Amino acid sequence: MIRMECEICGKPISDHPKRVKIDGSIMAVCDECSRFGRIQKEPPKPKFRKQNNKNQKRQQPRREEPQEELMEDYNEIIRKKREAKNWSREQLGQKINEKVSVIHRIESKKMVPDTKLIQKLEKALNIELLEKYNTDDLSQYIGSSGSGVKLGSIVKIKRK
Predict the structure, then answer these.
(1) In whole angstroms, what is the distance from residue 25 CA to residue 151 CA?
(2) Are 125 and 78 in contact (CB under 8 A)?
(3) Of 50, 78, 86, 142, which residue is most buried, by most CB within 10 angstroms?
(4) Are strands 12-13 and 4-5 parallel, antiparallel or unpaired?
(5) For residue 74, how far is the Cα from the chain centroid?
(6) Could you tell me how far CA 67 lies from the centroid of its own chain?
């Protein structure tokens, strides 16, 4: 069994660590420190197919392709670009064929737009709302530092 430590406070993590995005970085943290970020979905497990002995070839490990994720400040990007174009929420809604309430909920971060809506917003406002990230296996970094210094011992965490 691999023993992991929280990347913020350094406490041992007994079961599965939480994958949390904090200021753009994905970290393996304990339950207590997971409240400082947004919990990320686990990457899908690879599916293996059996190969015929005749066609067995030595397979090279595939590199994970970067995946895209909606930027954390998507609401601010949309609002600022809309205001820069001097458009009201009504005008933006008409251009992308959406209700004003949808635009309001997106800009107030009460709604996360789906892929189709993201594409419409990107095209209408000429912006990019998706950022690429790699789903690297965090277990390869366990014990690599050796110094025992954790993020929590360097950074002062601002309490809300």
Answers:
(1) 12
(2) yes
(3) 78
(4) antiparallel
(5) 12
(6) 9
The residue whose two tokens read 């001097």 is 86
Which amino acid does the sequence have at 140? Q
Q: Which domains does the chain have, with CATH numbers?
A: 1-42+136-155 (no CATH), 68-132 (1.10.260.40)
* Chain CA centroid to CA 83, Å: 27
Q: How do the pLDDT tens digits run along the chain, 160 residues long? A: 567 888 888 888 877 778 888 877 888 888 888 888 888 876 666 666 655 555 555 555 555 555 788 888 999 999 999 999 999 999 999 999 999 999 999 999 999 999 999 999 999 999 999 887 765 555 555 555 555 666 666 666 666 5
Amino acid 98 reads: E
